[in-house]
Amino acid sequence: MKAEFWLNKWESGEIAFHQESINESLQEHWPSVRAPAGGAVFVPLCGKSLDMRWLAEQGHPVVGLEVSALACDAFFDELEARPVIEEAGAFRCYSAGCYRILQGDFFTATATDLGEIAAFYDRAALVAMPPDLQPKYMRQLTSLLPPGSVGLINSLEYPPEVMEGPPFSIGETQLRELLGPRCRLSRLAAREINTEGTSLEQKGLVGLAETAYRVQIGD
Predict the structure, then answer these.
(1) CATH code of residue 139
(2) Structural domains in the chain (count)
C-alpha cells in the first residue's frame, strides 16, 4: 500500500486497525525483550496507538513515525498534551514530554532522523505491508536500528487464501527470511484472536493467531 492508502483511511475515519486498549501481547511479552532500562523505543507506523503510552509508563522515551498528520494530532489530543511542532528535514516533528513523533514517509527516514534508539516495537506495521513491500519494509526498519538493539514484533497468521489483506498473514519461516541471517529471532508465544463482530469477519476471516517474536539486530 502506498502512503495515500493510509492517508485516506485516516481522512475517512476507517481506522479499524486502531486498538482501543493496550495490546495484551505487548504487556505480557515486553519483559522478555529485555530492552535497556530507559532506552528509547522506536514505533514504526505508530498511528495514535495507546501502546506508546504503555511503553512510556515503563520508563521508555518513545519515538514514533507516522505518515498521517491527523493521527499525530489525535495522539496528542487524546493525551491532552500540546506538542511542539517543528520541521526536521523531510519530517514534521511533534514533541511533548517523553514522546517524539516524526510525521512523514517511513521509507525516507534515516537513523539520524530517529536519533539514539535502543529498542523497537512493531504491532501491526509489517503485517500492514503487502507481500511485495515486506522485504523493503524490513530492510528499512533494520537499517534504522543500531546493532544489538532489540524489539518485539507481533505477527498475524491465518490461511492466506481466506482473506486478502491488510493485515497480511506472516509465519515464522517467512519472518526469518525477511529479517535475514544477521538478525536473531525467538518465538515467544501465540494466542488465538476471535474476529467475530469485527471488520475481519466481514472479510471472511473467522479467527487468527497473533504471534509474538523477540528480535535482536546483529552486526
Answers:
(1) 3.40.50.150
(2) 1
For 26, counting Cβ atoms within 10 Å of its Cβ (0-12 exposed, 13-18 middle, 19+ buried), the class is buried
| CA angle centred on 114, ends 109 and 116, rounded to 5° | 145
List the domain range (segments joined by +) for residue 177.
3-9+21-216
pTM value > 0.85: yes
Task: Give, in order, the Cα–Cα distances in Å from 169 to each of 51, 64, 90, 200.
Answer: 22, 24, 32, 13
| pLDDT score of 6 | 63
Give the chain's largest Cα–Cα span: 45
CB neighbourhood size of 195 (10 A): 18
Q: What's the pLDDT at 193?
A: 86
- How many Cβ atoms from other residues are within 10 Å of residue 10's Cβ? 21
Residue type, 153: I
How far does the chain reach from its first CA to its final CA, in angstroms?
A: 30
| 43: in domain | yes
User: For residue 78, how many C-alpha atoms fall within 13 Å in the half-sphere facing its CB?
Assistant: 13
User: Does residue 16 fall inside a structural domain?
Assistant: no
Question: Cβ-count burial of 85 within 10 angstroms (0-12 exposed, 13-18 middle, 19+ buried)?
Answer: middle
